[in-house]
């Protein structure tokens, strides 16, 4: 995203006086991106400016805006943001353009509806080789990302397309009702994608789930999807029934993943090494949740780069020094707005001796002996993670929450933090 913003800044510098809408439409024209759906809601590009730009910048913009997915699983048109999200630029820019044109009725189809419907339809016809939506991926390098590849079966609504669509929906909604449209595009993008969770305004990418839930009408989104599917006449009765099932189940799962759960950075995204040996599987739902702090690293991580590095460092220590099969924690909370997958939902961890097969261990990066994690990180685990785990059938609805020290002789999760979690829902003073 930093490279894209720099390209936008260079274009704005040699095209002074253009409004944000002019730049957004000019970028789309330079990229040659126009479909019947886009023309239906945004009109054609006949009045779009021909932006003056260095040929190398124009070439880069065209490549990075146009989204594509190869048969080998390489996804183009995706950028990595400072918060660790992978964002497809096309739906983000289309949503922004719809908001700038005050074409609010186009926000849903241009950002989310069309891609989700196309993906559900594709899945009905290719059930064995695709997933309904949300396939995540990983970069060849976190520090210098060039190639983004999917890490599972493909979908036409990949995670990057959905995140880009959510951002486009949020930004389009905001500029349609506020003075944000008076800003430059580069300034809006820098502000949205560069802040940190607890020292920033509401309109930032780390708070996209909160803003999305506030702005979206899920009933309207679903009704638009149903309407879009009813015009598909080339389906037989069996395919229609399968599509209805996929759409209903898929939509509920979409809401669960993108509006209930926190943003979970997968193992492949933070650069995890392979599990040593064969993992043991948990019997779900588990009844216990244990809260930890890492102690080392002792400093909270506030960026994706730093948190991902801390995850790799802890995994190396746990595997190479402790002799464990993997990083011990089930999940790890950063102070960057993300929850990091350790052993994950299904694998038995090495976090709480005697209870590893009975619960999840969630650790917070930092030493919380005398201080607390930032509020957004605590809320992410206290509310979002637990709701995600319970609603997903992974954590019992009557789960018991404990501090690590209640199971063994340790100061974990630190005196200050332990005092805090005693006020959390489901905390129990007695551990059987």
TrEMBL record:
Keywords: Immunity
Residues covered by the Peptidoglycan recognition protein family domain: 262-408
SMART domains: Ami_2, PGRP
UniProt entry tagged with the keyword Cell membrane: no
Ranges in a coiled coil: none
Keyword Mitochondrion applies: no
Gene3D superfamilies (UniProt xref): Peptidoglycan recognition protein-like
BP GO terms, sorted: immune system process; peptidoglycan catabolic process
A Pfam entry, by short name: Amidase_2
Example of a GO MF term: zinc ion binding
Residues covered by the N-acetylmuramoyl-L-alanine amidase domain: 274-414
Sequence similarity: Belongs to the N-acetylmuramoyl-L-alanine amidase 2 family.
Protein name: N-acetylmuramoyl-L-alanine amidase-like
Source organism of the structure: Sinocyclocheilus anshuiensis
Native organism taxonomy: Eukaryota, Metazoa, Chordata, Craniata, Vertebrata
């Amino acid at each position: 995203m930093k490279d894209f913003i720099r390209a936008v800044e260079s274009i704005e510098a040699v095209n002074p006086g253009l409004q944000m809408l002019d730049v957004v439409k000019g970028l789309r024209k330079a990229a040659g991106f126009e479909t019947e759906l886009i023309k239906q809601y945004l009109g054609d590009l006949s009045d779009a400016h021909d932006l003056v730009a260095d040929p190398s910048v124009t070439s880069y913009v065209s490549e990075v805006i146009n989204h594509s997915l190869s048969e080998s699983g390489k996804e183009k048109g995706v950028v990595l943001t400072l918060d660790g999200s992978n964002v497809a630029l096309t739906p983000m820019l289309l949503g922004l353009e719809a908001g700038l044109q005050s074409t609010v009725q186009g926000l849903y189809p241009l950002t989310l509806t069309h891609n989700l419907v196309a993906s559900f339809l594709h899945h009905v016809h290719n059930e064995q080789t695709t997933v309904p939506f949300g396939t995540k991926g990983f970069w060849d390098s976190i520090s210098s990302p060039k190639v983004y590849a999917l890490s599972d079966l493909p979908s036409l609504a990949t995670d990057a397309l959905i995140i880009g669509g959510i951002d486009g929906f949020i930004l389009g909604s905001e500029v349609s009702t506020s003075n944000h449209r008076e800003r430059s595009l580069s300034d809006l993008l820098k502000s949205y994608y560069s802040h940190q969770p607890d020292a920033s305004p509401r309109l930032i990418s780390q708070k996209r789930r909160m803003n999305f839930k506030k702005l979206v009408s899920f009933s309207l989104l679903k009704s638009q999807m149903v309407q879009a599917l009813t015009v598909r006449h080339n389906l037989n009765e069996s395919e229609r029934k399968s599509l209805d099932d996929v759409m209903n189940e898929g939509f509920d799962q979409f809401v669960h993943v993108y509006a209930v759960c926190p943003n979970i950075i997968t193992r492949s995204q933070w650069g995890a090494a392979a599990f040593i040996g064969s993992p043991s599987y948990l019997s779900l739902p588990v009844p216990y949740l244990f809260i930890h702090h890492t102690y080392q690293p002792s400093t909270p991580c506030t960026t994706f780069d730093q948190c991902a590095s801390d995850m790799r460092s802890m995994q190396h220590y746990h595997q190479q020094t402790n002799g464990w099969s993997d990083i011990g924690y089930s999940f790890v909370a950063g102070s960057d707005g993300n929850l990091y997958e350790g052993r994950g939902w299904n694998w038995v961890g090495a976090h709480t001796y005697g209870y590893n097969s009975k619960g999840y261990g969630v650790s917070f990066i930092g030493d919380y002996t005398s201080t607390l994690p930032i509020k957004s990180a605590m809320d992410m685990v206290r509310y979002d993670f637990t709701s995600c785990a319970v609603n997903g059938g992974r954590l019992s609805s009557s789960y018991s929450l404990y501090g690590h020290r209640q199971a063994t002789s340790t100061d974990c999760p630190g005196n200050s933090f332990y005092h805090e979690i005693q006020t959390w829902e489901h905390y129990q003073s007695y551990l059987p």
